[in-house]
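fwd from M.: "can u put these together and see what the complex looks like"

so here's what she sent:
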Amino acid sequence: MTQRIHLRPMDAAFLLAETRSTPVHVAGLQVFKVPDGAPPHFVSKLYAYMRGFPVTAEPFNYQLDGRLTGKLLPAWEVRDDVDLDYHFRYSALPHPGGERELGILVSRLHSVHMDLTRPQWEIHLIEGLQGNRFAIYVKLHHALVDGTAAMRLMTLSNDPEDGFAPPIWAADLGEEFSHRGSGGSLLGRAYEVLQKELAGLPSLTRGVARSTKGLLGLPERDDLTSIGEAPRTILNVKIGGQRRVATQIADLARIKAIGRAAGGTVNDVVLAACGGALRRYLSALGKLPDRSLIASVPVALMREERGASGNAVSSFLSRLGTDIADPRQRFEEIKRSSEAGKSHLKEMTEAAVANYTLMLAGPILLTGLLPDLGTLAPPLFNLIISNVPGPRTRLRFHGAEMEAFFPVSQIGQGQALNITVISYADHLAFGLVACRDSVPSMQRLAVALGEAIDELEATFLPPAPEKAAPGRRKQARSPRSRSGAAAGKSPQRSKRAKASRPRS
Amino acid sequence: MTQRIHLRPMDAAFLLAETRSTPVHVAGLQVFKVPDGAPPHFVSKLYAYMRGFPVTAEPFNYQLDGRLTGKLLPAWEVRDDVDLDYHFRYSALPHPGGERELGILVSRLHSVHMDLTRPQWEIHLIEGLQGNRFAIYVKLHHALVDGTAAMRLMTLSNDPEDGFAPPIWAADLGEEFSHRGSGGSLLGRAYEVLQKELAGLPSLTRGVARSTKGLLGLPERDDLTSIGEAPRTILNVKIGGQRRVATQIADLARIKAIGRAAGGTVNDVVLAACGGALRRYLSALGKLPDRSLIASVPVALMREERGASGNAVSSFLSRLGTDIADPRQRFEEIKRSSEAGKSHLKEMTEAAVANYTLMLAGPILLTGLLPDLGTLAPPLFNLIISNVPGPRTRLRFHGAEMEAFFPVSQIGQGQALNITVISYADHLAFGLVACRDSVPSMQRLAVALGEAIDELEATFLPPAPEKAAPGRRKQARSPRSRSGAAAGKSPQRSKRAKASRPRS
């Protein structure tokens, strides 16, 4: 009746890492416009329609094998009796139903653990959003899908054909999302390294970590961020179980124009925006460290076979230039550091990448066993900044156009903040997730992100009154970002209107 | 800055008992009518008003001492920095906002653990209930207040004077709700017994339990329910962490009239209604055991000092007559069994009561340490049925009349169903809480409760066409109960209208 599928080792490691304070799930928040001319109670009808489909698609019917304690040798069972009403939920926002109320609800939903005795996903249909809009919040355990796969899962349900497709849990997703027969990968070997790390925890302390570059055969180079250089910050503390979620939006064309003018990539501009925002935010709190904050930037690894989903990622470290006041110099530092990190990841052997990945992931993954490790050992990096490519064209779901798509990621012990960015059509959506207790005034950080982008634009695209570039309107420092959602605080939305900018 | 107050032993035991599957909190659901002539967005304004008060009242500012692991020697800290937005939450029901949507939301809220690093309470203001109504769901950890004290906490906030009193967390409740200096009680000594139970777990198995009556010095009497006589049922299984909540309402005058006619108390009628309902429900599932189900019925113990709140309760066991088809014989059996249980509790010495209380509570309290105990050992009883006296007069909250007040209690390992009853003004409100996985079709059980009351009425108050009692209208089997809220299933509200019955 039920089938068993063994968890891939890295996926199993995400289960090991789960504690009350560090639920290991990722999520997405999609905002939709109710179609013009839709019947009354459109969202309610959509709920009833979707609820009519039983759960038949992998991995939505995967459940941890209940015969085990679920921790030591986990396996998935494929179930044909999934209790859909538990996983698919219909909610509403209270008056006045603005971005603030949406942010509060999503912060709460993101703070709740998933029940490990059931398939590890939730989809919340949320009505009552101002402007005749609704939202969908999708939550998935990291053991089920990695961030990139999750992205595809969440957008797959947006049917560009405007038709009434079955919901994602009843769609035939093909082999890509199956976990069958993909246990012997690079990360399978990497798991052995994790087991060695478990036996050799002291090697994660600063003294040993300093020599890790040599250990892994990495050349010494100034631009390459060393394992031991991240400062201690207010972001690297013991976290609790409650979350705050905040969001920010930036026009993609504008980010691309800044990148071109500065000689960097979109990712460099994203890191520079984060670096500038963190410098502002920490300065205002009087908590800016002397040395630059270090970001861990995940990158997708090549997959060895088409049918593999799972957590096939590594990371490189990049300085964020938070110690540099000049935005141009800060950008240059970030660009050099990020290039060095990426190129060394390419130069490493497959085995060295596995070692390096687990060394970086280790402290987070191990916190399930040793909750204080993430705060006792010095941080290997200060926060994770993840930049995920999203859908390029505007999507619709049952006729409703998707306005925005915010990532809502996870944090870990000693890592109280995560910034994840997804591109969608003509903009980048920033999703900020933080520990409710450790990171004060999250909304200010979201606003600072917008200000940092304004600063980058003023630096690299200064207004040229006499010779404006063709096709670009003359606009100096006029903001094209808006921060939304909420951090459980009063809304501090940018009062300046969002100006559209033609793609150039 | 902060003060420390040691937890009373029984309260500490409730913390020990907490696991992912068995959150140890109790709750109440109050339904209000928006006052006639209230301004638009009355509920939103009420939320804004209440949110203006910081948390200053005990025990709403009690937090477990973070310096301890929180489990071994717990103490409360009195905090002056409680994060109100975490505890006081504003929510809304989706379309159509009926009892079903309310029940689904409350089932979800009741399934979520409270964060042990914060004060152990939540108050949810819920708008969007059909008929211009709103609801308040209050959740409290059992270590903070016992059920009876919780009741008073929840009704205290209903100001009969129709004024705008401060919310409960900012009200001066007096010493009654303080936990200061009340550690040396009967239950303090009882805690020593619990520690002995920990060392002597085998004594909880059936073989030894059979002799417990003699051990405790109880006389052998046929009517007295023996420790070993509860059958195994579908209610006595390993439970998961998700809950279903269902409700039922019965006219108090009608229950009293049945009791008078049958020569029993209101509590006897409540137990008979539950017995009749469980017989119907289990028969329909083909799961009715040959022997009668046994209920554990909590009773409040005398408090030795005025300032004591806490869990000052014991319980007696009562047969529910589920093995008897005839409603009159079933009632007689319940009445005899319940009287024997109560009178023996009175005859016992104080120390014997403490032993007896902990023997009954032991398996539930110990499940935090040994999760399977509750299912491996035979059940000492099949479910807890608790009958709590509530407010006698109609209450208002900021001008809004309270229509109903449902208890939402807790369940434990091996105890998948709880029925708690509260009286309010002219009715009894039944709150049923069950494990989402173990108890199918909760709503059917709520409907069966109404049918069982109809049956009791038909038995003891038969229609007398020729000589109707003065002041009582001629009505045969016309239903005067209604089941509401939800069990995550389609609403199955009684289609027959509620008929009012004059008090006689």
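replying to her w this: Chain B touches chain A at residues 20, 41, 43-44, 47, 83, 85-86, 89-96, 101, 104-105, 108, 112-113, 115-118, 127-128, 240-242, 436-437, 488 (CB under 8 Å).
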